[in-house]
Design brief:
It is built from five helices and no strands. It has 101 residues and is mostly helical.
Length: 101
């Protein structure tokens, strides 16, 4: 299971959008964890989709996790995803996906 210890709200926001978008592949990855480089690409791309969704929800004034503006979480998201994938030896994938975004 993917868990974030320093900033647990990162997991909460990812879970929220995985469920609201009904993304079964991501929900499965959250439960199983990232095991392959393909998993890392899929997860990284989804996390960037989460950031896009956060921006869209803010513009629409949609409350998510008790707040309309969750953009202050973006540095925490970057920190946690970088650390998580670095522990798996796949932090280069996060960097690559972010650079393509």
């Amino acid at each position: 299971m993917i868990e974030f210890m320093r900033f647990p709200h990162v997991g909460e926001i990812i879970d929220h959008y995985a469920n609201s978008l009904d993304d079964k592949e991501i929900l499965s990855l959250i439960k199983a964890g990232v095991k392959t480089r393909d998993d890392a690409y899929i997860f990284s791309k989804f996390v960037l989709r989460v950031i896009d969704c956060m921006a869209s929800d803010m513009q629409k004034e949609v409350t998510v996790l008790g707040s309309v503006d969750n953009t202050s979480m973006i540095p925490d998201i970057d920190y946690e995803i970088s650390l998580y994938l670095a522990r798996k030896g796949m932090d280069d994938i996060w960097d690559e996906v972010c650079n393509e975004w």
